[in-house]
Specification:
Strand 1 and strand 2 form a beta hairpin. The chain has one domain. It has five helices and four strands; from the N terminus they run ββαβαααβα. By secondary structure, the protein is of the alpha+beta class. Bound molecules: zinc ion (ZN).
C-alpha cells in the first residue's frame, strides 16, 4: 500500500484493491483500458498462485484492441485502481471462508 500526495490510500496489489473496494484497471499504451471488480480477479490469481502485485500482475493481462489490430498480445503499461463501479467486469468471487482466511492472513 502507498499513499498519494493527497493522503489517499492506493492499493499496490489485487488483494489490497479488494480490501479497499477499488476496481482494477489495466491501461494499455494504446489508451485502451478495462475495469475489473477486484474480489473475483484476486481469487483468479490466488488460485493459480500468480503474483498479484500490480507490477507483476500486469503481465497476465493483454489488450483486446491491440490483439485485434496487431494480432499480438500486448501487456498493459500499468494497472490503476479507480473507483469501483457496477460496469466493472466481475469474475467468480472467492467463497466467504477463503476470503476471510486471506484477510486474517494479511493482517497477521
Ligand atoms: Zn492496446
Amino acid at each position: 500500500m502507498r499513499w498519494t500526495s493527497h493522503g489517499v490510500r492506493q492499493p499496490t496489489c489485487l488483494f489490497e484493491a479488494a480490501v479497499f473496494h477499488c476496481a482494477v484497471m489495466p491501461v494499455c499504451a494504446c489508451g485502451h483500458a478495462a475495469c475489473f471488480a477486484p474480489h473475483g480477479l484476486w481469487w483468479h490469481f490466488h488460485r493459480r498462485q500468480w503474483d498479484d502485485r500490480f507490477g507483476e500482475a500486469r503481465r497476465r493481462f493483454w489488450c483486446r484492441r491491440c490483439r485485434a489490430a496487431l494480432g499480438r498480445k500486448i501487456a498493459p503499461l500499468r494497472i490503476e485502481a479507480p473507483h469501483l463501479t457496477a460496469e466493472a467486469i466481475a469474475l467468480p468471487p472467492p467463497d466467504e471462508r477463503a476470503w476471510r482466511r486471506a484477510v486474517s492472513r494479511h493482517r497477521a
